[in-house]
Amino acid sequence: MTRLLIIQPDPSDPLGPLGDWLTDAGAELDVRLQPDGGLPTDVDGYQGVVCLGGDMGAQDDAKHPWLADVRRLLAKAAAKNLPTLGICLGAQLLTLATGGRVEEGSDGPEVGPHLVAKKDAAWTDPLFADLPLMQDVLQFHTDAITRLPPGAELLASAPRYANQAYRLGRCVYGVQFHIETTPAVVESWAAECPEVAEFARPGSLEHDALVTVHADIEETWRPFAQRFVRLAAGELAPAVDRQRTLPLA
């Protein structure tokens, strides 16, 4: 059994259908809702780590001091080249833990169903290569990844915020968007944060629109989740180290 540590920073963003996709692929999930669920001191005994989203900022340690523990654990996972996936806040925490930068988005919140586009490096990546050129995702964030961690490769981008998905090393991933939501979860976020939801395109947060986009998200991202489990299980080879070459004279 491939054992995955699932870090859930906020009750409002549960594992949702992503949990089903992971378990259907053969993973055993150890879900830790923060802060009461605690965190292991190390990632020994796990074959992979997933960190979900949340309402707080990735640097909001004054209100949520346990965020520092999450960042430390993500840094350990990255240092050990353990297959890791950070989603939205999880990607921002991973970014900070590995030397990148997260700031309030200069172009305002990014909200609702959107498309992101594969970058060149994605075509040879074990998780992203088989994704379509344009991928349906769900956005709901006010902060943005403004600088990738040193050595990271950009895998997906979008017009408003460029750093939508990246890989660090051979198997550590961050995605700024959501793939784990349901229409009900997004509707609850919109109800709780109307000042953020108003940045969505008109009609894009209506129930029928959310049902449609979530069906498209499942079609694209369920196989991605299955590949992540295979990567964690050692059945899928991680990315090849980026070749560093000197310029020709």
Automatic annotation (TrEMBL):
<dbReference type="Pfam" id="PF00117">
    <property type="entry name" value="GATase"/>
</dbReference>
<feature type="domain" description="Glutamine amidotransferase">
    <location>
        <begin position="71"/>
        <end position="183"/>
    </location>
</feature>
<dbReference type="InterPro" id="IPR017926">
    <property type="entry name" value="GATASE"/>
</dbReference>
<keyword id="KW-0808">Transferase</keyword>
<dbReference type="InterPro" id="IPR044992">
    <property type="entry name" value="ChyE-like"/>
</dbReference>
<dbReference type="GO" id="GO:0016740">
    <property type="term" value="F:transferase activity"/>
</dbReference>
<protein>
    <submittedName>
        <fullName>Glutamine amidotransferase</fullName>
    </submittedName>
</protein>
<keyword id="KW-0315">Glutamine amidotransferase</keyword>
<dbReference type="GO" id="GO:0005829">
    <property type="term" value="C:cytosol"/>
</dbReference>
<dbReference type="InterPro" id="IPR029062">
    <property type="entry name" value="Class_I_gatase-like"/>
</dbReference>
